[in-house]
Amino acid sequence: MIKQIIVGFVLLASTFTTVNGQTTQIIAHRGFWKTENNAQNSIMALQKAAKENFFGSELDIHITKDDVLVVYHDHDVNGILIETANYSAIKNTILKNGETLPTLKEYLIEGKKYPHLKLILEVKSHQDLNRENKAVSEIMKLVNELKLEQQVEYISFSQNICNEVKKQNPEALVSYLNGDLSPKEVKEKGWDGIDYNYKIFQKNPTWIKEANDLGLITNTWTVNQEEIMEEMINQKIQYISTDEPLVLKSKLNKM
Length: 255
Prior knowledge:
It comes from Faecalibacter macacae. The protein has helices spanning about 1-15, 45-50, 105-110, 130-145, 160-170, 185-190, 200-205, 205-215, 225-235, 245-255; strands at about 15, 25-30, 55-65, 70, 75, 80, 120-125, 150-155, 175, 195, 215-220, 240. The protein is α/β, with parallel strands linked by helices.
């Protein structure tokens, strides 16, 4: 009972209600990495996001040629293309904070320590659709093994990956990143949300409301300027992914 109360308090601390009644929640983009001696997509960035009680922490996932899942943003590591390389070719890569390039298993094991923190898994597009399908399969296998189904959500620029997520687990939540489909089109495809760059929403100012009305998840990225944060909040966006989560937290506290 005490544990439930603590978890509930933590979730409350990461969720803010604007004057119009809409809740907006903070997603730390690639973790909370803008701290001293830290790095994007590092274990430390994950830990910092959990410590600050943000709603969620986003991470990027690739699969190597020999089927090892790694957490890294770019498609190549020091000029080595991840999806065509064996894990042994990149496993000793050192991040800016001195950590070794994490595997997804290492990352999720750490993330499981913070059940209040939603883990937003971006499955990166790959050159081969079969490799995308394999990545989804291996990710979901690992998520199931660690019993993290309720703590993770999926996002991707790849329509194939979004389809594969729903095919392999219809209950899993997946949002589309690319910004080229309307909320109605995303709903018709059976996906769960739109996670678009804020410029897409500025060009299509009715899309957030349309998506909310359709029961879709609405998220925007990567919002680092206060005026754009406020613009998105006023449109009743559900989530904001940002490299400046403390700035967003302060903004929400003032609204």
